[in-house]
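Example pasted here:
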Amino acid sequence: MPKLIYSVEDDQDIALIINKTLTKQGYTVKTFSDGKSFFEAFAKEKPQLILLDLMLPDMSGTEILKKVREDYINDNIQIIIISAKHLITDKVENLDLGADDYIEKPFDLLELMARVDAKMRRVDQSDIIKIDDVELNAKERTVTKKGKKIELTNREFTILETLMKNSPNVISREQLFGIIWKVEQAFESRTLDMHIKALRNKLNDKGVFIKTVYGVGYKI
């Protein structure tokens, strides 16, 4: 399946050039002229890469970048800023906020293609995460331990993926609730604990692989 790129660009001529160029490269490209239409699509389907203009009619590209990077589940999405802003401060600000690259307008199409290809190779490499004898394939949504496949539910997989991607950092219960149930605060429920227990059972883990940080959350 072709990799999906979201291009957020309000200049129709530039948007068309980007779309045609990368489509010929074998990518699936969806173009958006503002933040609102981008987020409507983003809520339904996540791309592997976002090409992001900074000056948009309804919100800035920097605001979009911040919102995307707020959620840990979007960490593997590559974001390339394409902007007419040439100041070093603009580049530094957006790279610090989580952009993976910054291309100035006007840009060379060959350079754009090369940078997109490079970021997509990084996406391929980041699909597989291995810690100790547990290997997780994010693209195929599979988990193996010592080469043996472990069957997980969607929520168990998401919990494990989040913890493995962020290892060795602690992920709070609130963050896990936000990622899995799309709420900002952990509600009074044993639901998360039950998912963690089931996950540990399937991995034959006695709290050594998935560690509980009491009063905070979990980590690997």
Notes: Residues 133 and 146 are 5 Å apart (CA to CA). The radius of gyration is 19 Å.
